[in-house]
Amino acid sequence: MSVRKVPIIPTIIVVAAACVMVALGIWQLGRADEKEALIAEFESASERGPVRIGDQDLDNYLYRTVEFACPEPTSWSAIAGRNRAGRTGYSQQFTCRERTDWGQPDVAITPAIYAVVGWSPGPNEPDWSGGNITGVLTQLGDDYRITLAEPVQGLEASAAPDPSDMPNNHLAYAGQWFFFALTALLIYGLALRRRWRDA
Predict the structure, then answer these.
(1) Distance CA 43, CA 50 (A)
(2) What is the DSSP string of 126-175?
(3) Digit-coded pLDDT (tens) for 140-162
(4) 149 and 183 assigned to the same domain
(5) Contact 123/95 with Cβ under 8 angstroms?
(6) Are residues 89 and 124 in the same domain?
């Protein structure tokens, strides 16, 4: 009976790759737990009272009701959005604070703050000259957005930001990495079996 030889270097490479994939899957499971905890934290923040914001670290106030002075809004835009009844249309957004210029190395970057002042079925610009606003703070890339609790005159209320809408795909990513590891081992096992059969 012939001895079935296992090639050392290819086996080490495949097993090492499978171990890396399993480690990535385990890491994604940890990330899923972190995301669930973050969503729970945001849901808790939404139940707290309003706080006035300025130049402080705004990450500490995400999904909390905030107050902000927006005396001279600029850069109006109509973005796809829903009202509180779930109807699709346009959320009307103004810039309350412009981002500082990235080209100035000696100036600290100040993120922009946008105000969603309400919802309308069409993209027409509303008549709004600014003022003190109150709404829910969320992140918009490196910047921030405040969705007003009460819309300005002539608009309907936009749907309030909901932390549960945040995607948590880490479980799916973990499953993919585990599947890739299993697939790699199965394919290598089949290749070994064919090699032994043809030997």
Answers:
(1) 14
(2) P----EEEEEEEEEETTEEEEEESSPPTT-BPBPPP-GGGS---HHHHHH
(3) 888 999 999 899 988 999 998 88
(4) no
(5) no
(6) yes
